[in-house]
Write a structure and sequence with these properties.
GO terms for molecular function: serine-type endopeptidase activity. The chain is mainly α. It contains 21 helices and no strands. The protein has 2 domains: 246 residues, Rhomboid-like (Rhomboid-like fold, Up-down Bundle), CATH 1.20.1540.10; 137 residues, Serine Threonine Protein Phosphatase 5, Tetratricopeptide repeat. Helices cover 60% and strands 0% of the residues.
Length: 420
């Protein structure tokens, strides 16, 4: 067995190295988990993150980019800080043994057909580029997968082209294999659609298309073949702006929240948070931080009061937002200011206003003289934003609200039904 394995590695060194790197990373992840006593992987896998994969960080401990023990929202912060190389490394990581085994078997079968008919350096460049390119669409969709299946589908697409000019490939890679591959590509979409498996279909499809295009250029024998090959090689430059956009997702509200968290200019921080709230109105903690930032700069915090109310209108189970709202209310000192603030409540909540005032513990009978008892606040007010989930205070829920049923204990429930 070992003799056969050695001969295969010697005969197909590029394919063997491609598979070996994935296996080596998988073993390194398992060793890390054992060494750190990690029994199972959650939505955030510390082992994959420490070993180079892109992970959508939510609660970050011991992260070089932050000081707080808990981040109030999530995102691929390492990627946003410029660590673009994690995109490629993520491709070589795998979720479990079955995931790794299926990809390695597919790559081994496809690679032994491709490698003999291509120069080693061209084939190696194709594998690396295909792995990288196949992941970019996933990041545009805010998905953060792992695995070499995008590269495998690129090899599959390439072989569909190569079999046309290489009879020795066509003898092994027959119509049956083509139908099996296309069937699996379609089946993955079906399994994902019905929630059976969460599969990186964008990576599969983009890898497949990349392989088809590469193969079409390679087998071209027309008088324009040289020009087409030059243009295809030149098109790889598009990876650079694609990577830049993935690392600077200006369409993502949480990215502007991330920029605000690292901005020292208070005015620019507010600009970032306003843009973030505009793009991601369903993210309650962006609105909360914007309200707190404005709260520190306003003499009478009417603007921060309205922002917090509108954030709560969209995210009705955000209990930390209730605490921040009561903090802001405490700054209205005169009867006139309180009446104006109540007018904003009516404007935002309409017929639901009384129920919300009850939830704020500011019902109409006590609203004029309410003295809200809150923990002592530092100048930033950040302790309200970073309250741990176990520290929530109970508060009556508003009556007769029109929002669909939500879990009142969940800080992520939103009126538009978006889970963040």
């Amino acid at each position: 067995m070992f003799q056969s394995l050695r001969r295969a590695c010697s005969k197909y060194p590029v394919t063997a190295a491609y598979i070996a790197f994935a296996i080596g990373l998988f073993l390194a992840v398992q060793i890390y988990r054992i060494d750190h006593g990690i029994s199972n992987a959650g939505s955030f896998d510390d082992a994959l993150w420490k070993l180079g994969a892109v992970q959508p960080l939510v609660f970050v401990h011991d992260h070089p980019l932050v000081e707080e023990k808990e981040y109030p929202t999530g995102g691929p912060f390492d990627l946003w800080s410029g660590e673009w190389w994690r995109i490629l490394i993520s491709g070589f990581h795998h979720g479990d043994v079955l995931h790794l085994l299926m990809n390695c078997l597919a790559i081994g079968f496809l690679g032994r057909l491709i490698e003999p008919v291509m120069k080693h350096w061209i084939y190696a460049a194709f594998l690396i580029l295909a792995t990288y390119v196949s992941f970019l669409p996933e990041y545009f969709l805010e998905h953060y997968p792992v695995g070499l299946s995008g590269g495998a589908f690129a090899m599959f697409g390439l072989l569909m082209m190569l079999r046309r000019i290489h009879p020795e490939i066509a003898e092994v890679f027959t119509d049956r294999e083509v139908n099996w591959g296309l069937g699996w590509l379609i089946l993955c979409f079906v399994l994902t659609h019905f929630g059976i498996l969460n599969i990186a279909n964008a990576a599969h499809l983009s890898g497949f298309v990349y392989g088809i295009l590469a193969g079409a250029v390679i087998i071209n024998r027309s008088r324009f073949a040289g020009t087409l090959r030059f243009l295809f090689v030149l098109s790889q430059v598009l990876i650079i702006p694609g990577t830049y956009l993935v690392c600077h997702p200006v369409w993502n509200g949480k990215y502007y929240w991330y920029l605000a968290r690292h901005e020292t200019d208070p005015n620019q921080k507010i600009v970032y948070l306003q843009k973030g709230m505009e793009l991601s109105p369903g993210e309650p903690k962006i609105g909360a931080e914007l309200a707190l930032s404005l709260f520190r700069t306003e003499g009478v915090p009417f603007h921060s009061w309205e922002i917090m109310l509108r954030s709560l209108e969209r995210n009705r189970s955000y209990d930390k937002g209730i605490e921040i709202t009561r903090l802001i209310w405490k700054q209205f000192n005169s009867e006139q200011q309180k009446q104006k603030a109540l007018g904003i409540v009516t404007e935002v909540f309409g017929d639901e206003s009384d129920a919300w005032l009850e939830r704020f513990k500011l019902d109409q009978s006590a609203v004029a003289s309410a003295d809200v008892s809150l923990p002592k606040s530092d100048q930033s007010g950040n302790e309200f934003l970073f309250l741990k989930e176990t520290e929530r205070r109970g508060a009556p829920q508003p009556r007769d609200l029109t929002a669909p049923p939500v879990d009142p204990r969940s800080p992520q429930s939103a009126v538009e039904g978006v889970t963040l």
